[in-house]
Amino acid sequence: MRRIFGVPDRKQxxxxxxxxxxxxxxDAGKAQEVFHTTLREAAVRAAHGELPKERFWxxxxxxxxxxxxxxxxxxxxxxxxxEKDLTAQAASQVERLDSAQxxxxxxxxxxxxxxxxxxxYLDEFDYAEILDIAELKLGxxxxxxxxxxRQLQAWLDARFAESHPI
Length: 166
Fold this sequence. Notes:
- The chain contains 8 helices and 2 strands.
- The protein has helices at 14-25, 28-47, 57-69, 90-96, 99-107, 113-122, 127-134, 138-163, and strands at residues 3-4, 7-8.
- Helix 6 (113-122) packs antiparallel against helix 7 and helix 6 crosses helix 8.
- The longest helix has 26 residues, at 138-163.
């Protein structure tokens, strides 16, 4: 298996790293900036033989850069979002979304829920890997994903009910 910056490329290919940044930030320009900054830093580290040994460090580094990039942005007010049980249509509803719509929705979540959802919807990592990258405990990850997916289901139901009235 080919390796990128010391990590198997199956889990750390560059398009997935960019998609992760995009889901975290909800803005293509900011995502590209964080992505390029992360890669430049990785190249400098590689040139100096200073690459971290831990798995997924590139995603973890990009995560922290994304969080830093949004510190000065307007922050959403904490509010209670509607939640609905996941339905069989959830996957097809997500597929019907424009990628920017999903990214904007995920990027509006508070972190660490945002990180958990972005990593989950990349569909690249198993739960143990998400725990490692997002630096969460199992109970936290379970709570964030359950709550986030239920909130997303409520939003999807409202979104598609508006475009396809019954």
